[in-house]
Amino acid sequence: MTALEIAAAVRAGERSAVDVLNEHLARIDDRDGELNAFNVVTADAARAEAEGVDAAVAAGDDPGPLAGVPLALKDNMCTRGIPTTCSSKILEGWQPPYDATVVTRLRAAGAVAVGKTNLDEFAMGSSTENSAFGPTRNPLDISRVPGGSSGGTAASVAANFTPLGIGSDTGGSIRQPAAFCGVVGMKPTYGVVSRYGLIAFASSLDQIGPFANSVADAAAMFDVIAGPDPLDSTSIRDYSPDASAVLDRGVDGLRVGVIRELSGGEGSVDGLSADVLARTNEAVEVLRAAGAIVSEVSVPSATLGLSAYYLVAPAEASSNLARYDGVRYGLRVDAPTTGEMNTASRTAGFGPEVKRRIMLGTYALSAGYYDAFYGKALKVRTMMLRDFAQAYENVDVLVTPTAPTTAFRLGERTADPMTMYVNDVCTIPSNLTGHPGISVPFGVGDDGMPVGVQVLAPALGDELTFQVAAVLEATASGGVS
To answer: What class has domain 3-246?
Structure first.
C-alpha cells in the first residue's frame, strides 16, 4: 500500500495504525541486519504514537493526512529524548531537548516515526560509507551503495521498511540516493521547509525534503512539512504550497529545457554514463509526447558548480562544526589543558571525511587565501544564479540526469575523494542557487540498477517539479502509453 492508501484506511477505521506499524517493524527486524539503514529503531515510542492515532480515530477525530504512516527520520534531525548522532562518534548518545520543526509537523499529521536512519557523518558524503556506525547497503543489490548522505532513509523507503522518509540535501543528498535506490526524492526551494532542528552542515545550502515510493506520497509529505516557521530566520514567510493539487495537470504547453552542460552536450561535464543519458533522453521525449515544448538551453556556470561547492560547503562546515569542542555536549576526551582536550576530542570524534572538509574549509577562509578561494566561489555562485535566471526566461523547468551513473559498488570510490565528489555534479547547482529539484525513477541502466531523472524549477517552483515528475512516473510505471 502507498502512504496515502495507508492513511486513508487508518482514518476510515479500516486498518489499525498499530497493526500497520507492527508489519513494518517486522520487515525492519527481518532485513535491517544486512542493510544497516537504521541507527536506532524506536519501537516502543512508535507504538505509543500509533496507539494515539488509533485512539483519535476511535474518538471520531481526524489524526491527520498521514495517519498511521510509518516514517524514517535521518539521524541529523533533532528528536527530543531520542539519540541524534549525525552518524558521528562525537555525538554518540546525545539526546536533544527538543524536536525539529519537521518532526513536529509530521507527527501532528499522524505519521509514526519508527527510528533514526544512517547517513554519511554530518551529511558529508555520497555513499553512506562515511558513517561511524558502518555503511548502509542498497536494498536492490547489497553489494552496492544506496547513495548519500541520506542513504539510510532512501534504503528504508526502497526496502519498504517505511513508506515515507525524511532527508536533508546540501549538494544532492536526497536526490542522488533516491536515484540510486529507485525512489522519489525532492529538495525544496531554500527556505520553504524549516531547518530548525536540523544539525547544520552548510547553513546556506542545507534543505530538508521527502522520500517516498510515489510522487503523490512525496507531494503529500511535502505539503505537511512546507510553510513558514518563526523558529527559522531563513524561512519564507508567505509561501504555503499545495503540491498534491497539481499532480494531474500534465505538461501540455509547458516549456522544458535540457541543460547542455549536464546532459552530454557540447561543453558538458565529464563522467555522465551513456545508459543514464539514454534514460534521460527518453524521459525528455516522454514529456515532448505529452505536449511539452522541449528545447536545449545553456547554463555555462553549471560546469563550475562542483568546484564552487567544495569551497563554500567546507567553509561553512568548518564554522558550524567548531561548536563540537568537548565542552558543551558530545564526546569529551580528557587532557591536561583545555586546548589539548579540544584537540583530543575532535581527533577521536570526527571521521576522516569530516576532518578533510574541516581542513579544506578552514584553509579557504584563512587570511591570505579568502579572496583567492572562498571569495571566488561566491562569485561563481552569483554567476550561477544569473545563468539559471536567464535560462528560466525561456523555459519553465529543466531536466537533467540526477546522478552521472547508477549505484556503484561498496568500497569502489572510497580511496579517491574526487571520484566520489563527482557523484553530485548534476545536483549541486540547485543547492548553490537555492532552487527546487526532484528525482524520479525512470528505467534502469545497463547493470539493471535504477536511473533517476531530475526536474529542476526556479525558486518557489516546487509544485511545478511535482507536476512534471507525475507525468514521468506515470509513463515509467506503465500508466501512460
So the answer is: alpha beta
